[in-house]
Fold this protein.
Amino acid sequence: MKRKIVCCLIGLVLLSGIGITVKKFGTKDNLTTIRVSEVTHSAFYAPFYVAIEEGYFKEYNLDIDLILTSGADKVAAAVLSNDVQVGFAGPESAIYVYNGGEEDYLVTFSGLTKRDGQFIISREKISNFTLNDLKEKEILAGRTGGMPILNFQNALKNENINEKDLNINTSIEFASLAGSFISGEGDFVNLFEQNARE
């Protein structure tokens, strides 16, 4: 039941955020295309995908053109270059652009998910896994400062695990994590759903 409520709330947040855009761009006679860049395909975004497929945005005269743009930095670049009107990425992208001194910076206006969507994948089955199993092992965690690694570091902190007790590899870009792991790099990897299952 709690999941259904969260999914409904996410859908409402998206509809209200896009509704603001409707007032600015929409007309009643034809559809206005809104290009949306997403950092990754994730089961956590399912309410948004359902809303697109079921035509909910078209009821508001919007046609959503969804584009996969792996990496928050690339989502930020797509928004800043006006290739897209809306970007789905962690809030760190807005902070980096703002701290970079850009005159035209990003504005975070809505949260799409409340929980972290990554999974820790191991090369071998570990019964009763805990984060302590990562000690003295290499984990591919994404680039420094990105939401995946920030959430991972927060999880370690919550379990009182010193990061120095494991090898956190931050040299691999988000979009290349699965491929690098498959090719033999690392003992563990942080992956988002769809990639985690495959």
Remarks:
- Residues 2-99 form a domain with the D-Maltodextrin-Binding Protein; domain 2 fold (CATH 3.40.190).
